[in-house]
Amino acid sequence: MTTDSFSAAPRIAPWYWAVPLLVAVVTAPLWLGFYEPTVFYFLNRQFAALPDIVWSLLSLFGTGWAVYAATAPALWRAPRIILAWLCAAPLAGALTRVGKMMADNPRPLEVLGPQGINVIGEPLYIAAMPSGHSMTAFAAASAIYFSLAPQGRRRLLWLFVLAFFVACSRVAVGAHWPADAAMGAVAGLFSGLTGAWLAARIPERQLRPQSWLMRGVALFGGYCLYVLLTDQMGFAINLPYQYVLGAFLAVCLALFARRSLQSH
Fold it and tell me: In the 8-state DSSP scheme, what is residue 105?
């Protein structure tokens, strides 16, 4: 993948904006609640075949803190990538909050009780739809993907596979209905497209490590580091991996600071 693929402002073809709608149509049987709770029980039990740590780690990458750490090298290598998903984050957060308030759906544990459900991590009972983790994962995947020039995107299609498994993890840990994960994916795709569109309009001069915009983004990274090191985020078993992510992020922030303090 060339440097130009990372640095050039992307072009988003108009038809890509129909992708969230297409996903909504394809997943309609899920978010309309067909075959529930049968689908939830089936998926939750099948997913239990894998170790708990697999699903808890996938859920970790449905948080903005982990996404920031994973994309931290982009602070100086491909700043438009990190700006794209950060531009997507406020919209994704707003859609999550508004969606949960409007839907006011109970989670599987509230409806079905703990019997027969594989629960990993902290038990959750209220504010089901949409899944914020699913939305974050798909928002980050689509924002990063569409922040690249068209010729450089294909190699990052795996990001959507990862986002899909993050969405699955929310069913696997017993926190969400499949419908919640599906609607999170739909809203996340739209948020990511919007974030990439906004990031494409940021002037090149603001992408330099010496710009106050990028310094502000790095400062936010300091807060992400704090959260990774101090907050269990519902999964105590993730803490050692959060420390690893935190160490990686700290190194990246130090490298960025060195570049930022250099003269133009």
Answer: P
